[in-house]
Design a protein that fits this description.
The protein contains 10 helices and 3 strands; from the N terminus they run βααααβαααβααα. By secondary structure, the chain is mainly α. The chain has one domain: P-loop containing nucleotide triphosphate hydrolases (Rossmann fold, 3-Layer(aba) Sandwich), CATH 3.40.50.300. It has a 3-stranded parallel β-sheet with strand order 1-2-3, sandwiched between helices. α6 crosses α7 and α7 runs parallel beside α10. The longest helix has 23 residues.
């Protein structure tokens, strides 16, 4: 499974995995989201965060999974999917798939604040943070912090070494080395040449650090601990 906040770079990671021959679904959108799983996430994500999984949700997931795998041949080997929001249901998925491997894709929260894709913050923000103004940049980074801390904590507790955190910045700075990490984690055979052509550094990379200094200070104060946790910040005190 590949997941992360919207705009974090999950599409590039999904395309790298697909180049290994792994089945990632046959009904994909332009972002390489597996649509059968994505539609399930949209239907059940908020209810799951409120009250956990119920029998109807479990049955609907099995139907979505069957649709996702319908075009996969029995001998195709390992398979997976990419949908950024799936990581918010990690306990449910880890219980359903005891051998689940999760690639958690992270991007600097100061960049994510300015991303066009704020679907997760709008859909889950009130559940995560309480009621507030969805388009407030400080609220956006607070959601980024909540979501990535949740994924990191739950992934470590439930998956151990079946969790891999990949930062978009590392993928762009060291495409070969980071791609090799992804392929080893996915237990993929040799891929020659390495699919580093799937990695196109976005021009917006680092935009959060170039924003208005007063706003950047507010963002860093709101999410300093999580920015430090993922290696984006040193020495920022929280308020």
């Amino acid at each position: 499974m590949i997941g992360g906040t919207g705009g974090s770079g999950t599409r590039a990671v999904a395309r790298i995995i697909r180049r290994t021959g792994r089945f990632m679904g046959s009904r994909l959108n332009g972002s390489d989201d597996a649509l059968d799983i994505a539609e399930f996430d949209w239907r059940w994500g908020p209810a799951y965060l409120r009250s956990g999984p119920g029998e109807e949700m479990r049955e609907d997931f099995e139907a979505a999974l069957a649709a996702h795998l319908a075009q996969r041949s029995p001998g195709d080997g390992p398979w997976g999917w990419k949908h950024p929001q799936s990581y918010l249901m990690l306990p449910f998925l880890a219980d359903r798939f005891p051998a689940l491997r999760f690639i958690h894709v992270v991007r600097d929260g100061r960049d994510i604040v300015f991303a066009r894709n704020q679907n997760q913050a709008r859909l889950y923000g009130d559940l995560a943070l309480g009621e507030g103004v969805a388009d407030d940049p400080v609220r956006r980074i607070r959601f980024w912090a909540w979501a990535n801390d949740r994924a990191g904590d739950q992934g470590a507790a439930l998956l151990g070494d079946r969790l891999l955190c990949v930062r978009l910045e590392d993928l762009c700075r060291d495409p070969e080395g980071t791609t090799l990490r992804i392929l080893r984690f996915a237990q993929a055979g040799g891929v020659d040449p390495l699919p580093v052509d799937e990695i196109v550094p976005p021009p917006s990379l680092g935009r959060g650090r170039r924003a208005d200094p007063a706003l950047v200070s507010r963002l860093e104060a709101a999410a300093g601990a999580t920015l430090r946790r993922f290696g984006y910040l040193d020495g920022v005190s929280e308020t």
